[in-house]
Amino acid sequence: MKNPATGTPAPGKQSVTSRGTTTVADGVVAKVAGIAAQDIPGVYALGGGAARALGSLREAVGQKDLTQGVSVEVGQTQVAVDITLVVEYPHPLQKVADDVRDAIYAAVEDVVGMEVTEVNVSITDIHIASEENDEKTVAAARHDESQTGPREARVS
Which of 82, 60, 65 has its CA nearest to residue 73? Predict the structure, then answer.
C-alpha cells in the first residue's frame, strides 16, 4: 500500500500473499509492546516523568496512551523495541526488566508475527507506595484546612 500524498510505501510491516496485502503500522506494534509490559508484576508505569505527566492528563479526559514510553523501529520482518519503565518498590529491577523483555518478545512475535531483534529496557524511577499515600494524606489535610480554616488544639 502506498501513501497517496508521497507515493512511497506506508510505514509499518507489510506482508503480501496471493490473497492481498496486510500492513501493520508502527503504532500498533508499539501498542502491543506497551500492553505486554503493563501486565508484568512490578511495572508501575510506562514512560519518563514528562510522558507520565502528559499521560495522567490524557487519563483525566478518558484516554489512555498504551504506547507511552515505548518506541519501535520496524523493518520488513524484524522489530526493535525501546521501553521506559517505573518499577514498584521492592520488586527486583533486573527481574522486572527481564520479565518485560520476555513478554514483549512473546507478544510481538505472536500477535504481530514479526521477529524481535532486541528489547532495550530503561528504568527511570522506582515507585514507593508509602510516598503516594503520604502525598494524598497531606493533600487531604490541606483541603480540609482550606475548607474549615486551621484546626485548633483543644486541651481538656
Answer: 82
71 close to 30: Cβ distance less than 8 angstroms = yes
Pairing of strands 13-17, 115-127: unpaired
Report the distance separating Cα 144 and Cα 77, nearest Å.
Answer: 58
Cell digits for 66?
498504551
- Per-residue pLDDT of the chain (156 residues), as tens digits, is 444 444 444 456 677 778 898 889 999 999 999 999 999 999 999 987 654 444 454 455 665 678 989 999 999 889 999 999 999 999 999 999 999 999 999 999 999 999 999 999 999 999 998 865 555 555 555 555 555 555 554 454
Alpha-helix residue ranges (DSSP H) falling in the chain:
26-38, 49-60, 93-107, 129-148
